[in-house]
Amino acid sequence: MLSRLYIKNYALIENLDIQFDRGLNIITGETGAGKSIIMGALGLILGNRVEGKHFFNEQQKCVIEGYFAIEAYGLQDFFAEQDLDYEEETIIRREITPDGKSRAFVNDSPVTLNVLKALGEQLINIHSQHATLQINTEKFQFLVLDSVAKNQNLSSDYKNAFRQYKEIKEQLTALQELIVSNNAELDFNQFQFEELNKANLQAGEQQQLEDEQQQLTHAEEIKRNLLGAAYLLEEQETAVIISLKGAVQHLLAVQEYLPAGKEWTERLESTFIEIKDIAQEINHGEQQVYMDENRLQEVEDRLSLLYSLQKKHRVDTVEELIAVREQLEQKILAVTNQEEYLATLKSAVETSHKVLEDAASALSQSRKGVVDKVGNYVQEVLAKVGMPNAQLQINLTQLPIEGFKQSGGDEVQFLFSANKGQALQPIHKVASGGELSRVMLAVKSLVAQSSALPTIIFDEIDTGISGEVALKVGDIMQQLAGNMQVLAITHLPQIAAKGQAHFKVYKQDEGEKTKTNIGLLSKEEKIQEVAQMLSGANPGESALQHAKELIEEAN
Q1: Closest among 70, 65, 18, 76 to 41, alpha carbons compared
Q2: Structural domain tally of the chain?
């Protein structure tokens, strides 16, 4: 509910701080006193756009704050989705600077107008004779049926089943499209895989083959040089090994007389052994080198195949070719696995289809069970408020499962006729603004008996009624206020007398400026105001007595 409204520097308002009652709040005042200004300020914190500049003082910013008790509305998920701090008393603030810039806040967190509007729609319904009422929408019509039928659990079960069915159906569709795409590529992928698989690729083989190719190509040159090195080391008359051996013999002859001779001998002997080993390895290596034209051709053919495959697949190594082969293999296997998964998903779709149909059927049957109750109740109330021949017929049509919506498997239509002999038609086509307002009043009074509804504001919906009908409208508003907060802007004393809190909007001149103010009336002030509404500016004793009786009867 709206517990407090603070307005600063807006239009004719310098400062207003209004504390509202939980029940029926009546707002009265002469035409032009500023009731529409207060409604305009309230609209700004509900997400309406700023149109023009409206400042009491052009040098200061405009600030409007609404304090809302929201614990009964189940808005925790909304606050979480919008990344807002949830508070049971939530404060919405709108600031407008003199240069026209506007900012909005929810519990001191900045928000966009779209977020503000979405939140505002869940906190306050403003109804006027000329407004397009919620009753025209399918969403509200289902809300009426589900609230009266107490379908919270059935509706939740259906929404879960609907979500699961849609998710699985989307997975199935995506998989079917993927399989079609993969099947189109299957033959090509199979050909490429078999080509790579037939190549029998081995990691590291390219480098080995390239090394072998170099040896085979230059075999004659390699053998010639290795033989030359071996000859110089150990075969010619002045070979290195023969010379080293002689040098060792000379050092052995002097080491007895020369202290350093022993060390030189040992080092030279070590060098002799190392060079002798090298010579033996060179001889062995030379024997391993051979000229084989056939093997060279085999190596070059193999390398040519590897180079060709690398160019084809736009890679540089055999290891990358192996990775390509494995990817192709996975794609081929995926087609087979997808067919198995496809069968699993089809089975899951059939199962969720049955669950969804059962949930939709249960919800639909429950709704059908209250159709007559809603229609009869609304007709009874409308008869009391001056529409004795009004009829409301609610039609529910079962949709095919392809047409199921978030709201259920039904299509709903409220058909209405206000007069005898008038054919039933969709309510928004035949009901006038005043008739729609009274229909909404009847519907809200029924729904409020079974669910927590946001604050409702009736903005002069009483135009065109009087007398006993006005009393009945006031009774219904009073009944409605037992389950929700109601703000009613009215010119009818019969309705004004019903209020638990009565506010009067008035203008006053201060210096060269006119201000709009609002005051909560005392009991005596309320009697005076209702009497003035009955008979004019200077009510007589009879008007005052009549006003007192109306107020006492209402309370």
Answers
A1: 65
A2: 2
Answer whether residue 551 is part of any domain. Answer: no
Give pLDDT, residue 132: 46
Q: How far apart are CA 8 and CA 6, in angstroms?
A: 7
Cross-strand partners of 395? 413
pLDDT in tens, 379-417: 998 988 888 899 999 999 999 988 999 999 999 999 999
Condensed to tens digits (0 to 9), the pLDDT of residues 326-378 reads 988 887 777 777 777 888 899 999 999 999 999 999 999 999 999 999 999 99
pLDDT the model gives residue 129: 53
| Same domain as 33, residue 112 | yes
Amino acid identity, position 369: G
Q: pLDDT digits over 501-529, tens only?
A: 999 999 988 878 889 999 999 999 999 99
| 375: amino acid identity, one letter | G
Q: What is the pLDDT of residues 153-206, one digit of tens each?
A: 999 999 999 999 999 999 999 888 888 877 777 778 888 888 898 889 888 888
Q: What is 292-347 written as a DSSP string?
A: -HHHHHHHHHHHHHHHHHHHHHT-SSHHHHHHHHHHHHHHHHHHHHHHHHHHHHHH
| Residues 186 and 297 reside in one and the same domain | yes
> Which residues, in sequence order, are bridge partners of residue 24?
486
Q: Residue 423 gets which letter from DSSP?
A: P
Has residue 540 been placed in a domain? Answer: no
pLDDT tens profile 67-88:
999 998 889 989 999 999 999 9
* Amino acid identity at 217: T
Q: What is the pLDDT of residue 51?
A: 75
**Domain assignment present for 114:** yes
199 and 293 in one domain? yes
Residue 129's beta-bridge partner residues? none
- β-bridge mates for residue 415, sequence order: 393, 426
Q: Kindly report the number of other CB atoms within 10 A of residue 14's CB atom.
A: 17
* Structure tokens given for 242: 């023969």
Same domain, 194 and 116: no
The count of other CB atoms within 10 Å of the CB of residue 233 is: 20
Domain annotation covers residue 490: yes
One domain, residues 211 and 107: no
Strand bridging mode 102-106 / 109-111: antiparallel
Residue 430 has pLDDT above 80, yes or no: no
Do 189 and 328 have their domain in common? yes
**Contacts with 219 (C-beta within 8 Å, 6 or more apart), sequence order:** 289, 290, 291, 292
State mean pLDDT over 287-297: 78
Pairwise CA distance, residues 16 & 10, whole Å: 10
Q: Which helix (H) or strand (E) holds 249?
A: helix 240-254
Of 496, 553, 500, 554, nearest in space to 530 by CA? 496
In the structure, how many helices (H) and strands (E) does the chain have?
17, 15
Q: Are 89 and 68 a contacting pair, CB within 8 Å?
A: yes
Residue 509 structural domain? 1-123+454-520
Q: How far is CA 439 from CA 17, 139, 261, 498, in A?
A: 33, 16, 127, 20
Strand arrangement, sheet containing 13-19: 13-19, 2-10, 62-69, 89-96, 102-106, 109-111
Average pLDDT estimate for 94-123: 91
